[in-house]
Design brief:
The complex is a heterodimer of chains A (about 160) and B (about 140).
Chain A: H1 5-21, E1 26-28, E2 40-47, E3 51-58, H2 60-71, H3 78-101, E4 108-109, E5 113-116, E6 127-137, E7 140-149
Antiparallel strand pairs in A: 1-6, 2-3, 2-4, 2-5, 3-7, 6-7
Helix pairs in contact in A: 1-3, 2-3
Chain B: E1 3-8, H1 12-24, E2 29-35, H2 38-47, E3 52-55, H3 64-72, E4 81-86, H4 91-98, E5 103-106, H5 111-122, H6 128-131
Helix pairs in contact in B: 2-3
Classes of the chains: A alpha+beta (about 160), B alpha/beta (about 140).
Chain lengths: ~160, ~140
């Protein structure tokens, strides 16, 4: 990758949480991020000059705050919370890709996959974890990881 | 006159967020229609008069780029004002989109950014919402 993937991921994740969900994070050392209690996760896979995925895991308090702040009303509906988390992961992905692959690269993003419970931050077969970022909010923690796959596919 | 808008995004939360941002920005909204993909958006355009479409790009079924190609190729809809609201950052793809005569707002966006582009595209004066009287260029119609 042409740029530092950790810095790129941190920048994309921080700006997305701030601008989309109005949550200002404090960045923590990523070591031990797998031990953070998380309530839900979302992943977005992409194809292009690079292939891979971004995974976003959030604590329950962060999940509720994301939905509430995006909608401006209480995000009590689990389906709404999942949708909000998926969109947040989508925006993080869309913003980190040009930082790591350059502004000319064209990627095709798949729809976000959202699930309850803590996501895995271990790389799947054929991919490597290029970056992981641990963010802390008043409402709880979030972990964002960037996985790059070896395969190259046309967008 | 108030703007009839069509918000096209596969995320219901993002559609609501865009609508809320428009309202909080003082944009005079009339009917607000929603679609979850380009195919649904084409249906909405056949059913309703729309002044402005706010369009996501990465969507299932029919993405925003394909939708734009169809809209610009149809005499009935080619003059539709369109703002792309997307995470898309590729210069290559953004150039392709701009060739369809659209403005682009990058996600995540601030209310000020969205408002500024809506005012630019529609020609609404920046202080129009204060008087409640808005004339949309080319929009002299009786509804």
């Amino acid at each position: 990758m042409p740029t530092n993937p950790v810095k790129s991921l941190s920048r994309a994740a921080t700006s997305t949480f701030e601008s989309l969900a109005f949550l200002v994070p404090e960045e923590c050392p990523a070591a031990g991020a797998e031990l953070v209690p998380l309530a839900a996760g979302a992943s977005v896979t992409w194809r292009g000059p690079l292939a891979g995925r971004v995974v976003v895991g959030v604590a329950d308090g962060v999940l509720r705050a994301v939905a509430t702040n995006m909608l401006g009303t209480a995000g009590d509906d689990p389906a709404v919370r999942r949708d909000a988390l998926g969109e947040l992961a989508n925006v993080v992905t869309g913003n980190v890709l040009p930082l790591v692959a350059g502004a000319e690269a064209v990627f095709r993003l798949d729809a976000p996959q959202v699930h309850d419970g803590a996501p895995s931050f271990a790389p799947a077969p054929g991919e490597a974890r290029a970056a992981i970022v641990h963010l802390r909010f008043d409402e709880g923690d979030a972990v964002v990881a960037f996985f790059a796959a070896a395969a190259r596919e046309a967008a | 006159m108030k703007l009839n808008v069509l918000i096209v995004d596969d995320s219901a939360v993002m559609r609501q967020m865009v609508q809320r941002t428009l309202r909080l920005s003082g944009i005079p909204l009339g009917e607000v229609h929603e679609a979850g993909n380009g195919r649904e958006a084409l249906d909405r355009l056949r059913e309703h008069w729309v002044d402005l479409a706010l369009l996501d790009i990465n969507m299932p079924v029919m993405d925003g780029e394909e939708f734009l190609g169809i809209v610009r190729g149809d005499e009935e809809t080619r003059a539709l004002k369109v703002i792309v609201v997307s995470t898309e950052s590729s210069d290559t793809r953004l150039a392709r989109l701009r060739a369809h005569d659209v403005e682009i707002v990058h996600k995540p966006f601030s209310p000020e950014q969205l408002r500024s582009v809506v005012l630019k595209v529609t020609g609404i004066p920046a202080d129009a919402h204060e008087s409640g009287e808005v004339a949309v260029p080319g929009g002299d119609f009786d509804f």
